[in-house]
Amino acid sequence: MAVVTMKNLLESGVHFGHQVKRWDPRMKKFIFAERNGIHIIDLQKTIQAIKDAYDAVRKTVAAGKSVLFVGTKKQAQQAVQKEAERCGMYYINNRWLGGMLTNFSTIKKSLLRLKKLEKMEIDGTFENLTKKEIAALGKERAKLQKNLGGIKEMKELPGILFIIDTRMEAIAVAEAKRMGIPIVAVVDTNCNPENIDFPIPGNDDAIRAITLFTSIVANAVVEADNEVGLKIIETLSDEDEEQDQESLMSDLSIKEDDQEVDIAAAIEKYSTEIPPEAERDEELAEEKEEHRIQVDVDKIYGEIGE
């Protein structure tokens, strides 16, 4: 069973949005407050969105369709490739080529070309070519592998897309909508959630947040046939930080006298801060994880159980 805890979300900095001046008003319903010039995302709504997205991915995979992971920003590339390969699905993590969905018949030709070049390299065809010809073919293969390696075995259009940063992947969103393919996407406070079928409000810049969201979707693929599905733990317990998620879930469900930690203290321990005057972009994504933030969590989240 896949497990997601409030502790995971806090540790990953999922609740940090962009600077107030960079927000999209259409994200207002997912934003609770503003602190130090940064919008704070309501994790209660994030949790519900994760449940909906998880179920949507499970149903798609159970119906025999595939999932396409899309994340070309540098913070997402490694996580997207790793998790997509773990669950046996397809991914795009370098560049979204125009027409990848709307003109898939042409993309198929490029995939066939990639496979042909790989076969030529293995069966000894290169031995009969000149060094210049081999270098040219090698360069062509490397380029195709870089852009299309993640969908090399994709025979038909995917059943659903999972996207990190809908602003950067605007073309992918537009093509999916045109082809009627559902979209699960992480939407930050500067994104438009209206064109997304299953928006997940959360930080789309921090590496840890991206890794968490991507692993959740990958788990949905792996456990598509599991009737139990996703387990959400919305309370913070004083468990050992090195304890794995499965043990954490078991302990929380069994121990009635489990003590709850002060949420404000947990935020102080696990959360991060961006200086109000700093621009929140790719270069600051990792720097953000090194700062602290003072947040009045009682006002933001209220009672966790509510």
Name the structural class.
alpha/beta
Q: Quaternary state, please?
A: single chain
SSE ordering:
EHEEEHEHEHHEHEEHEHHH
Major sheet characteristics: 5 strands, parallel
Helix count, per DSSP?
Answer: 10
Number of domains in the coordinates? 2
Shape: elongated
Q: CA-to-CA gap between the ends?
A: 24 Å
Major β-sheet strand ordering: 6-5-7-8-9
For CATH, the homologous superfamily of the largest domain is named as Glucose-6-phosphate isomerase like protein, domain 1
Count of individual beta strands = 10
Low-confidence stretches: 239-306
The CATH architecture designation of the largest domain is 3-Layer(aba) Sandwich
Supply the key terms.
306 residues; Rossmann fold; 14% strand; disordered C terminus; 2 domains; Helix Hairpins; alpha/beta
Structural summary, described in words:
The longest helix is centred in the first third of the chain and has 20 residues. The protein has two domains: about 170 residues, Glucose-6-phosphate isomerase like protein, domain 1 (Rossmann fold, 3-Layer(aba) Sandwich); about 50 residues, Helix Hairpins (Orthogonal Bundle), CATH 1.10.287.610. Helix 2 packs parallel to helix 7 and helix 3 packs parallel to helix 7. The protein has about 300 residues and is an alpha/beta fold. It starts with a strand and ends in a 5-residue tail after the last helix. The chain has ten helices and ten strands.
Summarize the structure.
By secondary structure, the protein is α/β, with parallel strands linked by helices. It is 41% helix and 14% strand.
